[in-house]
Amino acid sequence: MKFKKAFLVFFVLFAVFFAVLLELGKNTLFGWFLGLLLFALFLVLHGKSLVQKKWPLRLLSWVLFTVLLACAFKLSAPPEKQVPAVDVRHPAQTEIVSVAQGQVRGVKTRDESVEVFAGIPYAKPPVGELRWKAPQPAEAWSDVRECDTFAPMSMQTRNHPIYDTLMQLVGFHRFAITPKDNYVGAMSEDSLYLNIWRPAKTDEKTPVLFFIHGGSLTSGQTDYSEYNGEALAQKGIIVVNCAYRLGVFGYYANEELQLEDEHGTTGNYGLLDQIAALQWVHDNIAAFGGDPDNITVAGESAGSSSVNAVCVSPLAKGLFKRAIAESSGISGRAPYHTFRSLPEALKTGKSIQEEFGAANIDELRKVPAEELVKTKFNNSAMCADGYAIVEQPYYTYLKKENNEEALLNGFNAHECDVFTFMQKVGADNYEEAISEVCGSHAAEVAKLYPPEAQPKAYSLALVEAGGDAKGSFNKVVSAAWFSYSHYVWSNAVADESKPVYLYYFTKDNGSLGSNHAGELPYAYGNLRFHSRLYDDTDFALSETMQNYWVNFVKTGDPNGEGLPEWPRFNEDRTKAMELGADVAVTDLPDRALFGILDLYQEEELEKRIKTAAEVIPEN
C-alpha cells in the first residue's frame, strides 16, 4: 500500500482530533473501539482502492468516514450513572441503623475510618401532584435500605460533557485520563435525599455539620468531591448534605400555588426542602450517634445564601445552633443576587406558564421535567413569601429575630473573576460598568479603585476578555456581590453580642486560587482529589482550616491548641482572619467601599419600596 505524505499527516491529525473528542466527551471504551476499527478500515481501504481514484470519490470517502465517526461518537456517549458512596470496589458494610422510616445500612471507606450512608430519602418524591408543593414526609420502607450510592442530582440544565471538561481544564486546571469518569451523573425530579458521613467510632452526642451545596440555586449535586465529608468525619464530627429542588422546580412562584397552599407560600420550594432535610436530621441523627442539639448549618455560594435564609426562617428555629457561611448572603438591604421580591417572582412565574402554553397550574404540572427544565426564564432566587421567609432578611436582623447563636463566615479575594471573564472593561466604560453595583456613586468608587488591568495569574487563558480596567472592575464587583453581604451579616450578628468570626481567603494555588469556591477543598479536607495542583503549603493551610471549622462545629469557637488565634469580629470590626500563605489577622479589605455601598443599598431599597417591590414590616 502506498500513501502520500500529506494524506498520512492529515490522517494522523484527524485520528488525534477524534481521540481528543472522545476523551473530552467522556465517551465509553466502546467509542474508542469503534473509532480504532473505523480508522483501521479506512486506512486499508484507502491504500488498496481509493488512493488511485479521482478526488471527488476520495472526498466522498472522507465525508462518509466522518459521518461514521460521528455515529460512533454518539453511540458511545457517556451513560447516566449513580455515583458510588465510596471509591472502593467491594466496600465493607456498616451495621444497620434504624430511622423513623425504616432501617438503613451504609458502607465504609477504604481504611474503614468513616461510614457513609448515601441516598437516604428525607421527603416523598416531589413529582406529579407534589411538584411545587411543600415537601411531604418520606414514606416508610420494610426491607433494609442499602445506602451505598448517591441519589440522582436534582433537575438542572446540563452542558455537553466536552464543554464541562474544557471548563474544568481552563478554569480549574483539572484533567485526568481515566476510564473511571466515562459517565454523567444521574438526574431526576425525584432527588430529595441526603447523605451522612460519620466516624466509624462514634460516641453519643457527636456534633453535626449540615451542609447546603451551591450552584446559583440552579445547579449542583451532593456527590461533588470538594465537599465530600470524609475528612471532617475523621476529625470527630458527623457531616450531612442534602439535595434540594433547583431552578424552576425549586424557586418557581405562582399566584394559583399561593391559593392552594394552606400557608399561602410559593417561590421557596428549594428552601423548604433544605429545612425539611434539616428537620429530618434533627429528628433522626441520634440514631447515628449525632447530637440533635449541636447542629451547625453550613453552605457555600448559593448554599451560603440558603444558610442565611435558614437563619431568618421561623420554620428552622430550634433545629440548629450555629452557622458557617462561605461567599454569599442575603442580609443586605437590597441583596445583589439569590433573592428577589415576591412580585418579581410571580411575574416570572406567569411568563413561564405562558411559555409552555399552560392554562393553569395543573397543566403546567403535566409538562415533562425534561422539557420544563429548558425554560428560558431564570429562577435563581428566593423571595419573602411570608412563610418560609416572612420579610426582607435585613429587617429580621434589625429585629434580632434570627436563629443562629454564632457565625463563622467569610469571602475570597477574587470572588467574581470567574463570572465576569467574558466582559471587557476599559477606562472608557469603567464607571458605567461599576454603576451596576453602586449606582450614582460610580465616580466616587472609581476614585477609590483607579483603572487597573486584571492580574495575569487570575486571567483565564484564551477566554479572558480583559481591558485596562478589568482588574479594578473585578475588585469592586467581588466586594459588592460577595464581601459586602458578609460584612453586613457579621455586623448584624455582632450587634446581638453573639460570637462572629470573619475570614478572608487569599491562597494562590495551581487550581482555582482565591476565586469563588477556591476555599472549599481546603475547609473540607479534599485537596487530595487533585493533589498535583497543590503543594505542602496548601495542605498545611487545609489542615488549619479543617481544624478551625471542626472546632467551631463542636464548640462555637474555631480556636484550639496549635492554631493561630482567631479573634472575634465583635471586638474589632476592622479586622478579619486572613487564610492564605500566612494565617494571621489582617485589615478588612474594602471597608471604604462598604460605606458607599451602604448608601447605595439604602437608595435601592427606597426605590423598591416606592414601586411596591418590597413590603415595609409592620413593626
List keywords for this structure.
619 residues, Rossmann fold, eleven-stranded mixed β-sheet, 37% helix, 14% strand, globular, disordered C terminus
Write down the overall geometry: globular
User: What percent of residues adopt helix (DSSP H or I)?
Assistant: 25-40%
Strand content: 5-15%
Average predicted local confidence, pLDDT: 93
Q: Classify the fold: give the CATH topology of the largest domain.
A: Rossmann fold
CATH class of the largest domain: Alpha Beta
CATH superfamily of the largest domain: Alpha/Beta hydrolase fold, catalytic domain
* CATH architecture grouping of the largest domain: 3-Layer(aba) Sandwich
- Multimerization status: single chain
Q: Kindly state the number of beta strands.
A: 18
Polypeptide structure, described:
With 619 residues, the protein is α/β, with parallel strands linked by helices. It folds into three domains: 5-75, no CATH class; 87-154 and 189-405, Alpha/Beta hydrolase fold, catalytic domain (Rossmann fold); 408-610, Rossmann fold (3-Layer(aba) Sandwich). Helix 14 packs parallel to helix 16 (470-494). The chain is built from 19 helices and 18 strands. The model is unreliable at 615-619 (pLDDT under 50). The strands form four sheets. It has an eleven-stranded mixed β-sheet with strand order 4-5-8-10-9-11-12-15-16-17-18, sandwiched between helices. A three-stranded mixed β-sheet has the order 2-3-6, with no helix packed on it.
